[in-house]
C-alpha cells in the first residue's frame, strides 16, 4: 500500500492517546475485500523520526518511507540519479551558465535544510490555491450533484437499480465506510500523492469521501465519482509505487501514523482489486458507428425506417436516417430500446416499413447482428390471444404524459400488436404504434381506476366521468383478457424521493436531473427538478432511459441541470401552445407523464387472486371498484350480486 514499506511488525504501543480512543470500524458486507494488517501490503512508518525531504526531487514525506539507511531519497530512482556524477555536473553547469534561481535538484547539491526546501514550494503552493479558487468559482456556475444533494439532504437511487448502466449488475456491496485510495489534494507537493479516504455517503456513482484522520471533521470532505480513474482500492499505491502522504491539515496530528492506520484499516472493506477493470469492461458497447438498424419513423409511427449508428455514448445511440443527406435527421435512443430492431425485422412480423431511396448500402455501412438487440419474451399465440377490436389502456406515444383508451388494430407475428388511440386516430392508420404483448406500456381496462391514475378518454367523448362499462356497451366492444398482460414486477429498489438522471423523452437527446415522486409496482413517476408537475412522465422501472446519479459525468454526456424560473416560464409558454394540436412527429417520449411501462394489477376479489391487488406507498386503493363484470363479459358480479 505504501511506497517502499514492507513491514508493520513494529510495536504499536507508542500510539498517542488519541489513537487509543478511536472508534472501532463498523462491520461491512463480507463480499468486499477485507484489509488485513499482514505486514506486507498495509504498512506505514512509525513516524518517530518525523518528516523527510528527498534530496533529489524534493518530495516531502514521512522519513521511514524513504530509501537508503540515511532516508535521503524517496525512491530507488532518485537515489540512483543523485549518485550520478554527470547529473550533478549538469545541474551545477546550468546554475553557472543561466544564472536561474536554484531548482529543487540544485538545492539538493547545496545541502539546504528541510525548512529551506519546504519554503521553495511556498510560491508553488500559493499558485495551486489560486488555481483551485478559480476552478471553484467556475464550478459554482455549473451544476454539482454533490452540492445539490448536500444542501437538500437528498438521497439517490443506487446503481443496482439500473441493470443497463455500467456496473449495474456487478456493483456488489460498495457502501458507506468502504476505504479507498485517492489523490491527496491537501498537500503542497508539486507531484500527485495519495491518501486513504472512507465513503461517508453514496449517491449513485458519486461518493462523499473523508480522509482518514479527520474523524468527525467534515471540513475537507469532497465528492467524486467512485468509478473515476483516480479512485483505487487500498493497496493500489503499494502495487503501483505511488507515495501515500497524510493531508497537510492533520500531518502532525499523530506521532505514529502506522499504528493509527493499522487500527483504522484492519477489518475494514475496500474496493475489489479488479474494480477498475470491471468498470472498463462494463463500458464496452457492442454497437459501433456505421451499423444499420431498423428504427421507428418519428414522422409516421406506424412504420420503421433504416438508420445508421452515428455515435455511441454510454450505450446511447445517435441514429441518422439513411436518407438524410446532411446527417441532421436523427433519432436518439438506448441500444436496449424497444424502438430499434435488426434489418429485416419489419418484414418478418408484418410491420409497415419505408423503403429507402438508396438502392445499395453506402461504403462502410453494415447490418447490425440480430443478437445484439434486446430480446422480447416468447409468447404462445395459438390459444386465447389478443384480437383486433379489443379494448385496453395504453400509453400514447404522441403524448406520453397520458394513459389513454385504446384499441388493438392489428395483430402481428411474434406477439407484436398495432394499437391506436380511440378518438384521435388518422384515417390511414399512420399514427398506430407497435407494442409487444408483454410490454409494460399496455394495460387491461380499469388499470388507471384501480391505481388512481387519470385515464384520458377518447377525444370528443362527452359522457364524463368516463366509465369503461358504459363505453364498452356503447361501442359494442370487449376488453382484452387480463391474463394476457404482463404481470411481472421485479424487485427494482426504487423509493419515492430518490434522485436520478433521466432522459427528457420529449427531446431524447437531453438527460436531466430528476426525482422519483410516485411508485406503483413497476411504474415510476419521474419529475424533472425545477419544472412543473405537468412535465412529469411515467416510466417503467427497467427503462433504459433512466440512469444513476453521476452517469453523465462517467460517460462524458452533458447533464441538464434543474430549470431556472426564467427558463421554465419561457419554455412552458411555448409548450402549452404546442399542446393545442397533437404533433405527428415522434421525437421520443413527451416530457410529461410518459409511462414506458406499467405493471397490471387489479383488485378482483375471488376471481383473479391476491396477486392482482394494488398497493402503493401511502396511496389508498379503491376496494369497491366493480370491474369484474367487465372482465368476465357479463358474468355475475360477486361484489354486488347483480348481473350486468
TrEMBL record:
Residues 576-593 have a biased composition (Basic residues). It holds the Pfam family zf-FCS_1. Residues 563-575 have a biased composition (Low complexity). The keyword Nucleus applies. GO terms for molecular function: chromatin binding; histone binding; zinc ion binding. One of its GO terms (biological process) is chromatin organization. One of its GO terms (cellular component) is nucleus. Residues 45-80 form the FCS-type domain. InterPro entries: Mbt, PcG_chromatin_remod_factors, Znf_FCS, Znf_FCS_sf. It comes from the Eukaryota. Residues 1-31, 562-594 are annotated as: Disordered. MBT repeats lie at residues 143-247, 255-351, 353-458, 466-562. The keyword Transcription applies. It is found in: Nucleus. Keywords: Chromatin regulator, Metal-binding, Nucleus, Repeat, Transcription, Transcription regulation, Zinc, Zinc-finger. Its main location: nucleus. This is MBT domain-containing protein 1 isoform X1. It comes from Dipodomys ordii.
Amino acid at each position: 500500500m505504501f511506497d517502499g514499506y514492507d513491514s508493520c511488525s513494529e510495536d504499536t504501543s507508542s500510539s498517542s492517546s488519541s489513537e487509543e480512543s478511536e472508534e472501532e470500524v463498523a462491520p461491512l458486507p463480507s463480499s468486499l475485500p477485507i484489509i488485513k494488517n499482514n505486514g506486507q501490503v498495509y504498512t506505514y512508518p512509525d513516524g518517530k523520526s518525523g518528516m523527510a525531504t528527498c534530496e533529489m526531487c524534493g518530495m516531502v514525506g514521512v522519513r521511514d518511507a524513504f530509501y537508503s539507511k540515511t532516508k535521503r531519497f524517496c525512491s530507488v530512482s532518485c537515489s540512483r540519479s543523485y549518485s550520478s556524477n554527470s547529473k550533478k555536473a549538469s545541474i551545477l553547469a546550468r546554475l553557472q551558465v543561466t544564472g536561474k534561481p536554484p531548482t529543487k535538484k540544485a538545492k539538493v547539491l547545496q545541502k539546504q535544510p528541510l525548512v529551506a526546501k519546504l519554503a521553495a514550494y511556498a510560491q508553488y503552493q500559493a499558485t495551486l490555491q489560486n488555481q483551485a479558487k478559480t476552478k471553484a468559482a467556475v464550478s459554482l456556475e455549473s451544476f454539482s450533484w454533490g452540492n445539490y444533494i448536500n444542501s437538500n439532504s437528498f438521497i439517490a437511487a443506487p446503481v443496482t437499480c439500473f441493470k443497463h448502466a455500467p456496473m449495474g449488475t456487478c456493483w456488489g456491496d460498495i457502501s458507506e465506510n468502504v476505504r479507498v485510495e485517492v489523490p491527496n489534494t491537501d498537500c503542497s507537493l508539486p507531484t500527485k500523492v495519495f491518501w486513504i479516504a472512507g465513503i461517508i455517503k453514496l449517491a449513485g456513482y458519486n461518493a462523499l469521501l473523508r480522509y482518514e484522520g479527520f474523524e468527525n471533521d467534515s471540513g475537507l470532505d469532497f465528492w467524486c465519482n467512485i468509478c473515476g480513474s483516480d479512485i483505487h482500492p487500498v493497496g493500489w499505491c503499494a502495487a503501483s509505487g505511488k507515495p501515500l502522504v497524510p493531508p497537510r491539515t492533520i500531518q502532525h496530528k499523530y506521532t505514529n501514523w502506522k499504528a493509527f492506520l493499522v487500527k483504522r484499516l484492519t477489518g475494514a472493506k475496500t474496493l475489489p482489486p479488479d474494480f477498475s477493470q470491471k468498470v472498463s469492461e462494463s463500458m464496452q458497447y457492442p454497437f459501433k458507428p456505421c451499423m444499420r438498424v431498423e428504427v421507428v419513423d418519428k414522422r409516421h409511427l406506424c412504420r420503421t425506417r433504416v438508420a445508421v449508428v452515428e455515435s455511441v455514448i454510454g450505450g446511447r445511440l445517435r441514429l441518422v436516417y439513411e436518407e438524410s443527406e446532411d446527417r441532421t435527421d436523427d433519432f436518439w435512443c438506448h441500444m436496449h430500446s424497444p424502438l430499434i430492431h435488426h434489418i429485416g425485422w419489419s418484414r418478418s412480423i408484418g410491420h409497415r416499413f419505408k423503403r429507402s431511396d438508396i438502392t445499395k448500402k453506402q461504403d462502410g455501412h453494415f447490418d447490425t447482428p440480430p443478437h445484439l438487440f434486446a430480446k422480447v419474451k416468447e409468447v404462445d399465440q395459438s390459444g386465447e390471444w389478443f384480437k383486433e377490436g379489443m379494448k385496453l389502456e395504453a400509453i400514447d406515444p404522441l403524448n406520453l404524459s397520458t394513459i389513454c383508451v385504446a384499441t388493438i388494430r392489428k395483430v402481428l407475428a411474434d406477439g407484436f400488436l398495432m394499437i391506436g388511440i380511440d378518438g384521435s386516430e388518422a384515417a390511414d392508420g399512420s399514427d398506430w404504434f407497435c407494442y409487444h404483448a408483454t410490454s409494460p406500456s399496455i394495460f387491461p381496462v380499469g388499470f388507471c381506476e384501480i391505481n388512481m391514475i387519470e385515464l384520458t378518454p377518447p377525444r370528443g367523448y362527452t359522457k364524463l366521468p368516463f366509465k369503461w362499462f358504459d363505453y364498452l356497451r356503447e361501442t359494442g366492444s370487449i376488453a382484452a383478457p387480463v391474463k394476457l398482460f404482463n404481470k411481472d414486477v421485479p424487485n427494482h429498489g426504487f423509493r419515492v424521493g430518490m434522485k436520478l438522471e433521466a432522459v427528457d423523452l420529449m427531446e431524447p437527446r437531453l438527460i436531466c436531473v430528476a426525482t422519483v415522486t410516485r411508485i406503483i409496482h413497476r411504474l415510476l413517476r419521474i419529475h424533472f427538478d425545477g419544472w412543473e408537475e405537468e412535465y412529469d412522465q411515467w416510466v417503467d422501472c427497467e427503462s433504459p432511459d433512466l440512469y444513476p446519479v453521476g452517469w453523465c459525468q462517467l460517460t462524458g454526456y452533458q447533464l441538464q441541470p434543474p430549470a431556472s424560473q426564467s427558463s421554465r416560464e419561457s419554455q412552458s409558454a411555448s409548450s402549452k401552445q404546442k399542446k393545442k394540436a397533437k404533433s405527428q412527429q415522434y421525437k421520443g417520449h413527451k416530457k410529461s407523464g410518459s409511462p414506458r411501462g406499467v405493471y397490471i394489477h387489479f383488485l378482483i376479489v375471488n376471481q383473479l387472486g391476491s396477486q392482482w391487488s394494488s398497493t402503493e406507498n401511502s396511496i389508498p386503493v379503491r376496494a369497491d371498484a366493480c370491474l369484474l363484470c367487465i372482465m368476465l363479459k357479463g358474468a355475475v358480479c360477486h361484489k354486488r350480486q347483480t348481473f350486468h
